[in-house]
Amino acid sequence: MEWFSADGYWLSRLIFQRTLAVIYLVAFLSAALQFRALIGERGILPVPELLRRTPWKAAPGLFRLHYSDRFFAAVAWGGCAVSVALIAGLDGFLPLWGGMLLWALPWVLYLSIVQVGQVWYGFGWESLLLETGFLAVFLGTGDTAPPVLVLWLLRWLLFRLEFGAGLIKMRGDECWRKLSCLDFHHETQPMPGPLSWFFHHLPRPVHRVEVAANHVTQLLVPFLLFTPQPVASAAAALMVLTQLWLVLSGNFAWLNWLTIALALSVIDWTPFAGRPPAVAAPPLWYEVVVIAVTGLVLVLSYRPARNLLSRRQVMNRSFDPLHLVNTYGAFGSISRMRLEVVVEGTADPVADEGAEWREYGFRGKPGDVRRLPRLFAPYHLRLDWMMWFAALSPAYARSWFGPFTERLLLGDRDTLRLLAHNPFPDAPPAHVRARVFHYRFTGPSELRATGCWWDRTYVREFMRPVSRPLPPEREGRDTGRGTH
Hints:
By secondary structure, this protein is an alpha+beta fold. 49% of the residues lie in helices and 9% in strands. The strands form 3 sheets. A 4-stranded antiparallel beta sheet has the order 4-3-7-8. The chain has a two-stranded antiparallel ribbon with strand order 1-2. β1 and β2 form a beta hairpin. α3 packs antiparallel against α4 (96-116) and α6 packs across α12.
């Protein structure tokens, strides 16, 4: 079938695949370095407890067969190794079926991680990576031209990603329609970056232009992805530029970089590609598999497509347990005020205001007012992101904040590794508390006078002081040092 292959897109496939492999590497590395404290056997939300209370079909994966921290580490570090092999182009040295299996391996491994990740993996870019990774399995390898159908499925994914994000904004907060959301967003976003202070202080007319350009890119440009070249390439290039602007303005894990990867698959690189390599005709079994997968994706696209057209559109929802076709969106509403949960401990036996309270430092979320926000993306600091949600509403933290503070009281080594600063290096504190502060970016004159990037004001108590848990054998006999 001559229509099946797109010989001219061999370089587009190569660029897309290598970029995706780098993102896979970052995702697996994030899992390997953070899982013990978050979901390990002694973690804040242990995987074994999740597996006991949920059915297999709700979240199928490798950990349904067996779970231990050692096995999870093997999965995560194994995913890193496979990602490095894909970055190096090992798939190109394998037969077609071997290359497809190699690309299927990180998808299976990361799907298994997401299925047990609970709130720490409840972000849209997790499903986006799985959906993109699933389609990448069927793109073929160097000795076979990329199939047209899979290239179109990648465009369909990019369309849903961008158009869904645009619609949720227009249907959500009125500041998007008034072009005023960026008066607040650079300051109140989940994890500001090193340039966020400067973006926040851009003139308001520039913020209006930013929002208007965002609407054009997300609501109009996506339709151009389905037009002939070079229009489709121009549309994709505009998306890449928009995403790079977002990369500069804040930390959004790998969401922006994965969107860029999808856009790069649309661009026709023929003028820069030189002579295309010789490729073999696709075998019949490959054509059958690709056509079947395309049919499956189209069938599963019904609910996400209906969601796009619904007035009750939801963001970042998976409609099947394997995350094959999902719905996306971000920032349907914008916070006008930045609230931060500040966690403190004291070694004093009495937990009152006269005690010496010392603040725990986080790696990414604002804390020390003199500390310029850091760049972490595409690496994902999961605890820091959830702390932002906790400040929005205690309901977001109900399942994990108590166990988190308990591990601080115990001086849990894995939990402390997630933090940038432990104010109790010699022994755990006697008490821990959490308070909510209002953070705002200082102005240029304030920055020059004080050296502070932030100004903060106490708002309210988030969690009253709690004390070190009792050993199991003493519980019920001595309540004097129990949780307050």
